[in-house]
Fold each of these.
Amino acid sequence: MGVVANGSGNRDDRKEEEENRGEQEEEISFEELGVDPRLIRALSKKSITKPTPIQREAIPLILEGKDVVARAKTGSGKTFAYLLPMLQKLFSESGSRKNTPSTFILVPTRELCQQVYNEASSLLEFCRVQLKVVQLTASMPVPDMSTALAGPPDIVVSTPACISTCMSKGVLRTSNVKDSLSLLILDEADLLLSYGYEDDLKALIPHVPRRCQCLLMSATSSSDVEKLKKLVLHNPVILTLSEVGHSTDDIIPKNVQQFWISCSAHDKLLYILALLKLELIQKKVLIFVNSIDMGYRLKLFLEQFGINSGVLNAELPQNSRLHILEEFNAGLFDYLIATDDGRTKKEQTGRENHIRSRYSKKKLRQNMDAEFGVVRGIDFKNVFTVVNLDMPHSSAGYVHRIGRTGRAYITGASVSLVSPEEEEIFEEIKLMLGDDENQDSSKSIEPFPLLTKNAVESLRYRAEDVAKGVTKVAIREARAQDLRNEILNSEKLKAHFEDNPRDLGNKENFGRYSFHLDFNFICFCMIFWEQFNSQYIILASAMTDLLKHDKLLSKKAPSSHLRDVPEYLLDPTTKEASKIVKLSRAAMKIDTKRWRPGFKKGFGRSRDPLKTFSAEEKSRKGQKRREDNGEVIRHKKKKAKQGI
Ligand SMILES: Nc1ncnc2c1ncn2[C@@H]1O[C@H](COP(=O)(O)OP(=O)(O)OP(=O)(O)O)[C@@H](O)[C@H]1O
């Protein structure tokens, strides 16, 4: 069923055939796939009732014990596609004692370790099955790794580098791995090699027994995936589904509308201000930049206009990063500026070495986390719009960035600001998306229709004035200040997470986590309330402020006159466009709350106001109408002045 080799034949026919088959398969349930009732109950507690296409295809094959290579779009549910059969197999094996874990899940970043660990733990918790899952990361001291592996756990979620360290330090005995390992999963396989894990994987592979089942999950196909496939798998089943896409135009989920705006590099701050301040894009918004300084520049700039945002980058401590993701996912703030320079880890290391040779270590105060990855595979919840303030350096980077919206088939949009210097990469992205200059049919990535030149120009003076104030010194100070705050936060969070390891990163537990914090916090404040009545409010606000991630960093208080856009600056077209965005949001909320099998049929350009509205056209029409009715308008104004 649905396993398609790289066959030839007419592409349209094949697509149609697969769509028909897809419609029949949409009715297949988790029960019919043979998923354990306990897991089905656990899924229903997460409001997941129907399998996604990749889950429909992969689960039976994995249950059968096949090696599988599965490529599926970002946000298509690959994690459960392997977690469900993996847990089911372990349910039947539970009770048989082993020396080492029987399952390794290897991912490229620490953030992903946390995410996969949380998903597996929460499923187990709902199923009430006694299986142990642990996560190991390179930052853990060796004794902690030994403690985590004592038992031993059934599942280890880790990075290849960390497993290789465990083996070289003797924390994991290679002979035991050979005896016990029965399932090896490489998630985000397209990224593992580019993150520089080739040697670590090569160190592990000789100890993986031949009978061990191996799975390889990825969002994009690349030569790296091919290389891994050859390195790790034995005669695997290759999953290429209609949903996954045979061609380049299927790479980005169809439920994500992609737009672009042409502007100079200098005008990027002005354009993002216009998009946010004039409410032309929907919240929550994830904004990508290519450097940490640019992230802080944008944050300081937006602050002056009353727009608070969080910042996420490799320099921040791990606990803070995880907490920032959690707060953003929980909806505690709407704008997150993420630094992801889109280069592979190998390239970054090369660059860092180059910098190191030019500056003393003392000067290089930033301590980048080599296992950091904000974009790749992270399941951001309910991000409606992804903005590329800086364009990524590669088309694969673009796919992963855009994949942070439209997850689980919920509607999303992306807006890329393209400067003349970024034309080359933009052309490469368009080519990857299958947008051909000579094609008349609708393109995957279209000009953003809601922003007029007038609207942008109306904000220019204010934007340029504020941008001038965001100096290099201000950025440096803000960056250092944020780091100081987050190191302080991180210590507090560390203590908390040591006591409650599952609280972080687990959306089901987030309420509980907030409760723990709040409960402690309330007790703490009640004692103080009795003793220092008058100091209570000051203390309470200081504490909550410390753990907030979107707090102001600017030394200069935001000016109240910049908070609101005066009515006279808003032209009727922009007002209408902003109304359209709100309408569109309401319409789409009704459309797709969760993955719905019939989704593709209901979603179309004709129903989508964003696709049918053109600000420039409206503006021209409006101008024409005003020109035609010039007499009437002037006449009305005159009457109004006279108070008639
Ligand atoms: N059957 C389902 N029905 C509804 N939602 C689902 C289903 N399966 C998974 N999800 C949700 O879809 C979201 C995306 O899933 P997941 O993170 O596994 O995607 P992915 O394919 O691994 O994406 P990426 O390639 O970006 O890592 C998650 O929030 C997950 O809870």
Note: The first strand starts at residue 68 and ends at 71.
Amino acid sequence: MSDDPAEAPCRLYLITPPVLPAGFADRLAAALDAGDVACLQLRLKDAAPDEVRRAIETLMPIAQARDVAFILNDDAVLAAEMDCDGVHLGQSDGDHAGARMLLAGKILGITCHDSRHLAMKAGEMGADYVAFGAFFPTTTKEASHRAELGLLEWWSDVFTVPSVAIGGITAANCAPLVEAGADFLAVVGAVWNHPEGPAAGVRAMNAAIAAAG
Ligand SMILES: Cc1ncc(COP(=O)(O)OP(=O)(O)O)c(N)n1
Ligand SMILES: Cc1nc(C(=O)O)sc1CCOP(=O)(O)O
Ligand SMILES: [Mg+2]
């Protein structure tokens, strides 16, 4: 088996906490230094555009210095303007096809909830990954859809576009998602709310993914 993390069948996709605490840059660096993280998504739903710009300027170099792709949530235009590595768009986050053209060569991920139809549409449109969720109850956001393992199994059997599983995922419950074929596990609370800190959260998630894979 290859030692290259990029070759691993399932990898960790980290999303920032909804509000960045003081000293977050150091916490992020410690988390990313604790083990493999494929991407970091900046997700600040309540921040003003200037605050998001400042966060990108501070956090993107920390991620990129560690070969972690820096993905912006919700805003394809800002992702292009700030030269982020990509964007994650939900079903209400604007024109997916327009974002695909604007961000040619960059990563475009699309939320598909629990829908095979939305995932096939996203794949045909040129998405680099499709995200399914929520797989478990989450306190990070009000998730109005619930996805089942069979969706991941079907997707990985039929399509080559990578899948991301999201929603309430922890080291304790992630094994079936890995076994079902998820290419990435996206988490907020499992890392940032880990009782021993975010570095321990990254270690625990990677250990659980490796044990399941
Ligand atoms: C990897 C990943 N998957 C799903 C989402 C949810 O996106 P969306 O439905 O647009 O909801 P918000 O995150 O914008 O509240 C995500 N952000 N990342
Ligand atoms: C941002 C997000 N999107 C979801 C979806 O189902 O689309 S669930 C979710 C929150 C993920 O946070 P945690 O790992 O703490 O549950
Ligand atoms: Mg969104």
Note: The radius of gyration is 16 Å.
